[in-house]
Amino acid sequence: MVPIFCYHSIGPSPLSIPRDIFEEQLGSIKRAGLSTLTLSQLLTLRHADQLRAVVLTFDDCFMDVYENALPLLRDNGCAATFFPVPGYDGVTRWGSAVERRWSDVRTGTFTIPFSYMGERERHELVNHGMEIGAHTLTHANLDLIDPIQRDEEIVHSKAHLEKELGVVAKSFCYPRGRYTLEVMNAVQHAGFLLACTTKSGYFHPTCNAFELPRFPAVRDPEIFRSILEGKGGLLPLHRRIVKKAARLVRQGT
Q: Which of 150, 151, 197, 229 is the most exposed place for a label (fewest CB within 10 A)?
């Protein structure tokens, strides 16, 4: 089994994984004797002895990922797969620590600014051996838009990145994890070899290549190690009780 992790932001924001925690996670991967693969490399896995690996993915490609995650990946000799949204080039979106998501407009609790990588940063990702996959042109909900617009979002995002970077975009990521059988078929027909969901679970060679599960990024080192060890992030009962008690104490102070 291979865990695939889904990250969005690396930095000081409440919506982000702090840089020092991400650095420690890379250390945990190395100490566990696991290699980091790109998503498309999973397709080459055929034998159990090849599954001592982990995959790191980054949705949306916020600028803080370029600033904070890329140097750590490079320094630790780690590979990763990135899913940029070309339509967000030069755009600022707004995060909410309450809602735990992002909005196109600054309103209510959506007050934390997030900028995005552009073409220059995407070229640097490629130059450092990272994989670039597609995530649509505008981060559209593919299960809600009409089929013509849906196909344009899928096909044109692949064409845009391939022309811009001179690479083949083999992997796809469904925005917000939303897809249907029709969406999945459209992604396959566009020439992608695999696609990621937001469902939790491990990759194994019998997985549907267009419904790959991913674990959301976590801060807790014990939970992270549990996922690496194939335990799905579950801790022993006594550790869960201790953690819950500590959390309740913190909330009461």
A: 229
